[in-house]
Amino acid sequence: MVCSCIEKMKEENSIGLVDTHAHLASSKFAEEVPLVIERATAAGVKRIVAIACDIEDSLVNLSLAGRYPTVKAAVGIHPLYVHDPGGTDWLEQLAKMTETSEVAAIGEIGLDYFHPPQDGTTEDEWRSLQRVFFEHQLDLAVSRDLPVVIHQRNSAEDVLTVLRNFPKVRAVLHCFTGTIPEAEAALELGHMLSYTGIVTFPNAAEVQEAARMTPADRIMVETDCPYLAPVPFRGKRCEPFMVTHTAEKVAELQGVEVDEMARITSKNAGGFFRNI
Fold first, then answer.
1. Distance CA 243, CA 9 (A)
2. What is the pLDDT of residues 181-200, one digit of tens each?
3. pTM for the full model?
4. Strand pairing partners for 194?
């Protein structure tokens, strides 16, 4: 059920919300995508950015964006998929995809030092391969003037080091759960921070403090669905409509009304992503 604050936002014909990070290509949604999008629209979510992990996801996202006006596609190779991205010509495939107007960003891309190597290599080889994929995709983003959606897990220092080498890149650090110094470093480089349902968790004091201190013009909201459902849905499959609850919490932390937070984050998303 959508909270009364969000209902008020809809009644006032507000700009609506953008879920800037949703894995609509996930098998956890199977044949339910039309209903998932319908529920999001009913809750006041005007746009969903469908995020990719590999070539297959990227192609699914393009298909969804072509079928549903509220969906825009991101294409890219997640660091955990670099061992099997979807073909040796993965970069050429991505480059071709970025020529279409449905593509709003490249992502999610980055570095993941939390999970062990997926291909039987050593840790150093695994991290090196991730960095190669990361840098190739950053080059592509610069050449296409596209923003990038960054995955960083236990890798914040190295991610920021790489981003410093690509000063023309516009990035959002998705599902930001880092420290305040990490947030400040990313903001100093001119990048955006995006918050998921984690910000609603009672034990997420540091994430909440980061959301509180993030400048209004640098903040976005997301679900990362089907993962990280916010309170009061914690433990259930997450969906784009639940971004309303994340927005409500971020609004509280920022000291503004939820309809104003919807306006702010939607404006930020519109300025960051292409063609949304």
1. 14
2. 999 999 999 999 999 999 99
3. 0.94
4. 220
